[in-house]
């Protein structure tokens, strides 16, 4: 190890060099900078959805469908404006002299210029040696178990900038998916059923919206895992991604289809159903906050007053409610915590959510079946209803498979799916305790088993 590098590390007050035998392995090497695939993919989805919506609005304009055109424009502009504000806020552009970037955001082209910036940073990375800006300490997970000693990586300027870009686009992907793509998909599917024909532009917009929603839900699941196991270097396997895509895709598709079918039979009642869902999930974190008699978290943003903090919390709660209306958010909000996320998720909430959601979907499908219009005489309604129920059940099945076999930290979970199901079947009987099982030990008592190879990517795209 180079002596100059050793001295530079020892000068950092929050990180001191610790010998390997004391439990830490000092890693003095700049990790390989990975391409910003998530940034490019989120930008492609944003542009594709915007272009498809613009083409469809021009068709609505020519045909005189003012209502469809107005709603389509609303569902594409509202999330777009929120996306620009999010990117500007995360990159702190208002306090910097960047007129071109701000102008691109005013033109709703902020994701494009941000994507170009990320690609430029990636292309310039590694051409010359750069000083590190921070050090990160992680433990590696292998086959769901914590192995090896904690390791420390130097984070250079290029890596830091790309990490900021990735984090920003993950948040904008969630906003775009559940504040724009989800209502857009619902609207276009409802319009297609009401007009009894499917335009090519409308079909393209529906497909892009469905991909955007599935990706946004996937990002939610990965972010929940990364937040919960922040001390570990989490790596998702291809099987885990496949399970999550099938789980999220089936869950969201059946939910949207159920709401649309119900709205075609009982148009005004769907407003009551959707509004009740939205209000319940919006006020749930606030009710828990008031029950705990907690105070607002400090330092959410240094320049924010109490009013500004409350506005931010309301926007976060609104996004949380919109996600839960259509699918499981994978996180629970804790407005009293600085991170705003409950670090100890409970199986009971997950089971309660999917049980009630399954019952609600079943009731909506039954009401649609009894009050459906004459249009569905040309469709096998019983078969369609059974398909929706089966597809939602398959989505729940893939979720259980993910948590049981594909979760990257499944050995750190105190009780897995199999044990929870066994407890339910045994009416509260305690699961068998297996001596020495890591999943039954607290996180701070998990001891490393052996040294492992150093993985050089400290952050990965969702």
UniProtKB/TrEMBL annotation:
One of its GO terms (cellular component) is plasma membrane. The keyword Membrane applies. It is a multi-pass membrane protein. InterPro entries: XK-rel, XK-related_adapter. It is found in: Membrane. Keywords: Membrane, Transmembrane, Transmembrane helix. The chain crosses the membrane at residues 39-59, 66-90, 203-227, 268-287, 307-331, 351-371, 383-403. The keyword Membrane applies. Belongs to the XK family. This is XK-related protein. It comes from Electrophorus electricus. The gene is XKRX.
